[in-house]
Design brief:
Elements lengths: L10 H6 L1 H16 L4 H27 L6 H7 L4 H7 L4 H25 L4 H18 L7 H7 L6 H24 L4 H25 L3 H15 L4
Helix pairs in contact: 2-3, 3-4, 3-6, 3-8, 6-7, 6-8, 6-9, 7-10, 7-11, 8-9, 9-10, 10-11
């Protein structure tokens, strides 16, 4: 079972170097396509390049924010040309940021489900989630917070496409928590309210823990959320 949530799914890439990890994968893909013609090689290479660009954008915006991350730096981190970046993302950095937010969304949905499904009791499941978030922050030396929030915060009020992608992500995360609570017998409206409270609280606690370089905000959030949820269950 994975023990780190969405926000830290890229930590292994961080340690190894984004370009190095995905660059090796691309070289393998190229080697397999060799001798099969230029079209086959291009087709095999293209998905790896796009994924590498999105991964680099997500990581850099997670650490630096949207405005402080130039598209040239993304291309360098991804070991891709600027031409490749604009080929896949003709809308430039804004379109790429939306893709990065969507990538983070998908990752967290998968890991949320895995963690919550691993604990029958929803209160214990939320505690497990907070431990996962704390572990991920600590392992990244408090650098890697939530890539969705980090990317969206600096664009509030001026880049609606990015804000909309982040809003969709939060709604999907809440839906996963909602399903867990409903399966435990929590009434529908209470489950919806609790799910919103869980996600909002954890997002704030993770940011506070990152700033303080201490997992206390997450630990306390987990403890009190678990008590709150337990009051609605059984």
């Amino acid at each position: 079972m994975k023990t780190r949530a969405l926000h830290h799914a890229t930590s292994a890439t961080t340690k190894a170097g984004t370009a190095g990890v995905v660059g090796t994968a691309e070289m393998v893909g190229k080697a397999g396509a060799a001798g099969k013609g230029g079209k086959a090689e291009k087709a095999a290479d293209a998905p790896g390049t796009r994924e590498r660009i999105v991964r680099a954008a997500s990581l850099l915006m997670q650490r630096q924010g949207y405005d402080a991350t130039p598209i040239k730096q993304i291309s360098q981190e991804a070991d891709a040309t600027l031409g490749s970046v604009y080929h896949f993302f003709p809308g430039g950095k804004q379109e790429l940021a939306v893709a990065a937010v969507q990538r983070g969304d998908e990752e967290f949905v998968d890991i949320l489900r895995e963690i919550l499904d691993g604990e029958p009791d929803p209160a214990e499941a939320v505690l497990a989630l907070t431990r996962s978030l704390a572990d991920g922050l600590r392992e990244s030396d408090w650098i890697d917070g939530c890539p969705v929030t980090a990317t969206a915060l600096g664009t509030a009020g001026r880049l609606p496409d990015i804000q909309q992608a982040a809003a969709v992500a939060f709604e999907r995360w809440q839906a996963v928590v909602f399903d867990k609570l409903r399966s435990a017998g929590v009434p529908e409206q209470d489950a919806a309210d609790l799910a919103c409270t869980v996600i909002s609280t954890l997002e704030g606690a993770e940011l506070a823990a990152q700033v303080a370089r201490d997992d206390k905000p997450l630990r306390l959030a987990g403890t009190h959320l678990a008590r709150l949820i337990a009051s609605y269950v059984g």
